[in-house]
C-alpha cells in the first residue's frame, strides 16, 4: 500500500495535510480488502467511497482556491484533472460491487493510489514552482 513520504509534500501545510487524509482513506480501503473477517464488505465499501467523494470535493475546492490566489497559470488544466477524477469516482456502479468485493476494492484502490501518486508528484508540486 502507498504511504505518505516527505517527497509528496508540496510545501503548503494545509494541502499536505489534506493529501495525507487521502492516503488515510486509501489505507482504510486496503485494510478492508485484507480483512477476512467481514463476509460482506458492501456497506464498508460504500462508506469509504462516500468519504472519498466528499473529501476530494472539499480538497479540490481548497486547492483550486489556493491556485487561483497565486495566479497559477496552469489552473484550468489542473482543474480538469480534478473534474475527471470526480467524474470517475461518481461513475462507480455500486450494483457491481457484490460480484467480487475484494477485486472491486482493489480496482478502486489501484485507481485512487495511482492517481494520488502521479497527481501530487507531477501536478501539485508544480503549483509552488511557479
From TrEMBL:
The keyword Iron applies. Residues 11-128 form the Hemerythrin-like domain. Keywords: Iron, Metal-binding. PROSITE patterns: HEMERYTHRINS. It comes from the Bacteria. One of its GO terms (molecular function) is metal ion binding. It holds the Pfam family Hemerythrin. NCBIfam families: bact_hemeryth (NF033749), hemeryth_dom (TIGR02481). Belongs to the hemerythrin family. This is Bacteriohemerythrin. It comes from Oxobacter pfennigii.
Amino acid at each position: 500500500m502507498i504511504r505518505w513520504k516527505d517527497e509528496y509534500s508540496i510545501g503548503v501545510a494545509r494541502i499536505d495535510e489534506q493529501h495525507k487524509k487521502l492516503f488515510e482513506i486509501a489505507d482504510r480501503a486496503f485494510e478492508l480488502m485484507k480483512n477476512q473477517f467481514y463476509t460482506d464488505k458492501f456497506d464498508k465499501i460504500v462508506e469509504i467511497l462516500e468519504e472519498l467523494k466528499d473529501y476530494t470535493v472539499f480538497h479540490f475546492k481548497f486547492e483550486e482556491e489556493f491556485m487561483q490566489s497565486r495566479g497559477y497559470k496552469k489552473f484550468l488544466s489542473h482543474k480538469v484533472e480534478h473534474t475527471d477524477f470526480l467524474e470517475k469516482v461518481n461513475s462507480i456502479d455500486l450494483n457491481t460491487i457484490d460480484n467480487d468485493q475484494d477485486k472491486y476494492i482493489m480496482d478502486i484502490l489501484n485507481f485512487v493510489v495511482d492517481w494520488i501518486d502521479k497527481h501530487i508528484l507531477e501536478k501539485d508540486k508544480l503549483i509552488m514552482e511557479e
